[in-house]
UniProtKB/TrEMBL annotation:
Organism: Caulifigura coniformis
Role this protein plays: The RuvA-RuvB-RuvC complex processes Holliday junction (HJ) DNA during genetic recombination and DNA repair, while the RuvA-RuvB complex plays an important role in the rescue of blocked DNA replication forks via replication fork reversal (RFR). RuvA specifically binds to HJ cruciform DNA, conferring on it an open structure. The RuvB hexamer acts as an ATP-dependent pump, pulling dsDNA into and through the RuvAB complex. RuvB forms 2 homohexamers on either side of HJ DNA bound by 1 or 2 RuvA tetramers; 4 subunits per hexamer contact DNA at a time.
Protein name: Holliday junction branch migration complex subunit RuvB
Name of the top EC class for this enzyme: hydrolase
Stored Pfam families: AAA_lid_4, RuvB_N, WHD_RuvB
Notes concerning its domains: Has 3 domains, the large (RuvB-L) and small ATPase (RuvB-S) domains and the C-terminal head (RuvB-H) domain. The head domain binds DNA, while the ATPase domains jointly bind ATP, ADP or are empty depending on the state of the subunit in the translocation cycle. During a single DNA translocation step the structure of each domain remains the same, but their relative positions change.
Keyword annotations from UniProtKB, A to Z: ATP-binding, Cytoplasm, DNA damage, DNA recombination, DNA repair, DNA-binding, Helicase, Hydrolase, Nucleotide-binding
Cellular component, GO, one term: Holliday junction resolvase complex
Family, similarity comment: Belongs to the RuvB family.
Subunit structure: Homohexamer. Forms an RuvA(8)-RuvB(12)-Holliday junction (HJ) complex. HJ DNA is sandwiched between 2 RuvA tetramers; dsDNA enters through RuvA and exits via RuvB. An RuvB hexamer assembles on each DNA strand where it exits the tetramer. Each RuvB hexamer is contacted by two RuvA subunits (via domain III) on 2 adjacent RuvB subunits; this complex drives branch migration. In the full resolvosome a probable DNA-RuvA(4)-RuvB(12)-RuvC(2) complex forms which resolves the HJ.
Gene: ruvB_1
Region (Head domain (RuvB-H)): 275-349
Domain annotation AAA+ ATPase: ranges: 70-198
Residues that coordinate or bind ATP: L39, R40, G81, K84, T85, T86, E147, D148, F149, R190, Y200, R237
Binding site for DNA: R330, R335
Length: 349
């Protein structure tokens, strides 16, 4: 049903009868991280778009190298799939230093962070993903490490309690977060460099799609690259995943496996990605607020509960793009579907 609504324009011009749907098209997850590693840019010059951010990072790196210094701590924030991990891993490569990777939620106590800190070589990078999810005690343990390259370890209890200080080598923390707002002020202040990554413009995504098609040894027409880019919610990871699935479809339905516009449009229809780039889950979110909460205002928890999803995944994966497109609004009393949002799912405000 949803599919009928999605394949709107260009429906008449579709090939008569599509071939069997490749399995990959059936359970499509545009946020799948499985292919990130193979398509991830390795050097700064391969990073497409985000020009201002990249320019500033380049200056940071050049100056650091010229001084033979340690890079100042850097915080990267922005929606999922937008290039935070990419930049965080490109930077140590550009500097020619080691990089350790830790995940915020996995560091549940200071002792979990300890090996990373003591292993950190001079000028090396410690990348902490989802840094907003560090527990308070781990955060506090990290402060002196970031500020003075020192850690304070408490030994014993009561009268015998004492603290020993361990000196660390100067190193750089690169933190990534989808929620800069959730970071505590003292944590945020410890980052001298802060960069926000925003959604990509279509021409940048087209460039990413064309480059990756080449990496995948597939040909794609410029028009088809535009179609994929335009419907990727300004997010490289989604563009890459749509490209991969579209390629499957092209392999089966084009004699040379070329991705033409017709094929791209058809594949996007099968993936239930509409003209704006909304996925089934995004439309379900709008429908839920409209049908169950009369269009809102509706609280995040209540919406999440109705959709059987976690509030975090709504806030991270669904809402940012809907907000940006003006389909919903966030008010102190909850989320509201805008008239544009109503129209988009074929309802009257
Ligand atoms: N600027 C870019 N140029 C080219 N490709 C990019 C760029 N940014 C991201 N990508 C592609 O998108 C994929 C996902 O990006 P990345 O893993 O860096 O996102 P992220 O911001 O860390 O997401 P998450 O919040 O989910 O961890 C990368 O593997 C890469 O292929
Ligand atoms: Mg990441």
């Amino acid at each position: 049903m949803a599919r009928d609504r999605v394949i709107q324009s260009g429906e008449e011009s579709l090939p008569p009868e599509p071939l069997d749907v490749p399995p990959a098209l059936v359970d499509f997850n545009p946020n799948d991280e499985a292919h990130d590693e193979s398509l991830r840019p390795q050097r700064l010059e391969q990073v497409v778009g985000q020009k201002k951010v990249v320019d500033r990072i380049r200056i940071m790196l050049d100056a650091t190298r010229k001084r033979g210094d340690t890079l100042g701590h850097l915080l990267l924030d922005g929606p999922p799939g937008i290039g935070k991990t990419t930049l965080a891993t490109v930077i140590p490569r550009e500097l020619g230093v080691d990089c350790q990777i830790a995940a915020g939620p996995a560091l549940s106590a200071p002792k979990d962070l300890l090996p990373y800190l003591t292993n950190a070589g001079e000028r090396s990078v410690l990348f902490i993903d989802e840094i907003h999810r560090l527990p308070a005690n781990v955060e506090e343990f990290l402060y002196p490490a970031m500020e003075d390259f020192r850690i304070d370890i408490a030994l014993g209890e009561g009268l015998n309690a004492r603290t020993i200080n361990v000196q660390l080598k100067p190193f750089t923390v690169i933190g990534a977060t989808t929620r800069a707002g959730m970071l505590t002020a003292p944590m945020r202040d410890r980052f001298v460099n802060r960069e926000h990554l925003d959604f990509y413009e279509t021409p940048d995504l087209e460039e990413i799609v064309r480059r990756n098609a080449k990496k995948l040894k597939t040909t794609i027409t410029d028009e088809a690259a535009n179609e994929v880019a335009r419907r990727s919610q300004g997010t490289p990871r989604k563009a890459n995943n749509i490209l991969l699935r579209t390629r499957d479809y092209a392999t089966l339905s084009h004699p040379d496996g070329q991705i033409t516009t017709e094929i791209a449009v058809h594949a996007l229809g099968m993936l239930e990605i509409d003209e704006l780039g909304l996925e089934r889950q995004d439309r379900r979110y709008l429908e839920t607020i409209i049908s169950i909460f009369g269009g809102g205002p509706a609280g995040l928890q209540a919406i999440a509960h109705s959709m059987s999803l976690s509030p975090d995944s709504l806030e991270d994966d669904i809402e940012p793009f809907l907000l940006r497109m003006g389909l919903i609004q966030r008010t102190p009393r909850g989320r509201i579907v805008t008239p544009t949002g109503y129209t988009h799912v074929g309802r009257k405000p």
